[in-house]
Amino acid sequence: MKLPARITAPVALPLAVLVLAACAPQTSAPAAGGDEKTGTLRVWLFQEVANQPKEKVVDAAVAAFEKKHPGADVEVEYIPVETRAQRVKAAFNDPGSAPDVIEYGNTDTAGYVKDGGLADITAEFTAWDQAEDTDPTARESVTVGGKVYGAPLFVGVRALYYRTDVFRELGLAAPKSQDELAATARKIRKARPELYGIAVGGAYTYGALPFVWAAGGDLATEDGSGAYKAALDSDAAVRGLTAYTSLLGDDNCPAATCAQMGGNATVTAFAAGKAGMAIVGDFSHAAVEAGQVKGKYAVVPLPGATPGSIAPAFAGGNNIGVLKSTSHRTLAVELTKELAGKESQAALFDAMGFLPTFTDVRAAAAERKPFVKPFIDTLAAGTKFVPATAAWGRIDSSLVVPTMLQEIASGRKNVRTAAGDAAEKMDAAFAEAGRAG
Q1: What sign has the CA pseudo-torsion 139, 320, 302, 237?
Q2: Contact 248/259 with Cβ under 8 angstroms?
Q3: Report field, pTM of the whole predicted structure over 0.85
Q4: Is the distance from CB of 278 to CB of 146 less than 8 angstroms?
Q5: How far apart are CA 298 and CA 278, in angstroms?
Q6: How many CB atoms lie within 10 A of CB 113?
Q7: Per-position DSSP letters for 282-305, written without gaps between them
Q8: Cα separation of 36 and 39, whole Å?
Q9: In 3D, which of 273, 4, 10 has the Cα closest to residue 157?
Q10: Which of 178, 259, 265, 364 could form a disulfide with 409 if both were Cys (CB 3.0 to 4.6 A apart)?
Q11: DSSP letter at 372?
Q12: Could you tell me which of 275, 159, 260 has the C-alpha nearest to residue 203?
């Protein structure tokens, strides 16, 4: 996720469900559709924490599309990010009930392409006059094997939101290292026990990973041939996991409640005034603004391991793609351009805080809204991504990382054992993806 990208980690599921997810049969590729010029197009977009501002932007884009294409109408459904894997897999397997256009996280691109679900729109994207201003990294997020499978919608990175009123009251300063972050969180919890010092979650993959990366660790290493090997059990990764999971305790964010929290839950906790700090994306700015802390918070880049450094953030973001099974290919591509075009991206930034993928639109957005600076600074400091393989979809949907974090938080396993078990699951997924490929 959008994740996910601004992709939010799914909530924890029982072990039996994890096993079923890990052993699920591969998605079968849908048959290619047709190119009808009238009729209804179905669209699946992600449900945000505060969705109404997004709906207004989408409604405007849909109205513009329908005006340009008489005889075509659009039905939009907003689906939970957490259940996207099941919904999209079902759509790929049953083209008759599938949408024509979907929003998807950039971590899902390789898997969806391997499953044969997304249409190759290289020719149309290349001919699109707006495409030349697309950020190269964003274009890479829709590209597999040199072919384009969608249009970038926004780029998402996370930073540290903190309560200025609480910090002022307690005489605290924004932390400049992850050690300072942990110490500050515990001071807040001790002085204000009704608050989490920093809202963290055992199901928040993209909140935990910056701690791993800041410690010099990684999810996996690539051997140059496209094959991956898990690295979560390396000494560096274990140091980062230890730093993150140490925050899942009674002196900050009690495991009894926080172990089940994903990214959206941490946003909700901060916006509701229940936390002194939280790791929150630019894409959740509108949700925070709509909450109880409006006017009482600030944002800085998430600090790294050394004082003054910035932790590498997950290079998230979402894309808009056309399903190969659509019976309205041309219209679906045109709708994709409308939803992901410059006008819509500018409006989504104003409405939601989503960072545009067009360099000129992003520059104009930064001039209008100063809150963007910590996120742009985070991008400039360097970002990281998940393994660029279809195996990541299996690893993500099987909740390998959240399960590991929750095992540590609950005390069922120590950090090194849990990391080793997670690495074994990842290596199995990498091997399976290699055999299937």
Answers
A1: negative
A2: yes
A3: no
A4: no
A5: 11
A6: 21
A7: GGGHHHHHTSTTTTSEEEEPPB-S
A8: 7
A9: 4
A10: 259
A11: G
A12: 260
